Amino acid sequence: MQLSVNGALHEIKSSADTPLLWVLRDELGLTGTKYGCGKGICGACTVHLEGSAIPACTVAAADVQGLAIVTIEGLVPAGQIHPVQQAWLDAGVSQCGYCQPGMIMAVAALLRANPNPTDADLANNIGVQCRCGTYPRVIRALRTMVGR
Which UniProt key words apply to this protein (predicted)? Predict the structure, then answer.
């Protein structure tokens, strides 16, 4: 089986029903995608599939063959920083940071699809359960990004 991850084609040895999350982390060494709940609820494992944010823990590797997968490591070229990541830094969003890659991936997909989201759009599309409760800083960072 072959998967296209971060613009490169990878020969995958895992079984076809292995969740994409574990292929990314264990086989490809892309540990920015985090394990949280294993049920697609918490959002820590969010990646882009054909540009849309999805939970990598609920998708079998075989089901994404031939589709473009992007992880936090591939969001921008090496040595660069994505505008969402910069907004996170500027607003001091992270505490423990565990959920942040998934949250950044969810927000990047939202802003690509809707560059001028409402506050409700922002609140409803963060897509990650953060135990540290950094949501006010996230909203502040996003409002700054979209000019509000």
Answer: 2Fe-2S, Iron, Iron-sulfur, Metal-binding, Oxidoreductase
Query: How far does Cα 53 stand from its chain's mean position?
Result: 7
Spatial CA neighbour of 148 closest among 103, 118, 114, 107 = 118
In the predicted model, is pLDDT for residue 102 greater than 70? yes
Domain limit, last residue, from 20, 45, 74? 74
40/97 same-domain check: no
pTM of the model: 0.91
What CATH number is associated with residue 63?
A: 3.10.20.30
Query: Do 94 and 65 share a domain, yes or no?
Result: no
Helix (H, G, I), strand (E, B), or coil: what is residue 120? helix
> DSSP label at 31?
T
Domain, as residue range, for 125: 83-145
**pLDDT tens digits for 83-100?**
999 999 998 888 777 888
Mean pLDDT value across residues 91-116:
88
**Distance between CA 23 and CA 13 in Å, rounded?**
9
What are φ and ψ of residue 30, in 5° steps?
Answer: -95, 80
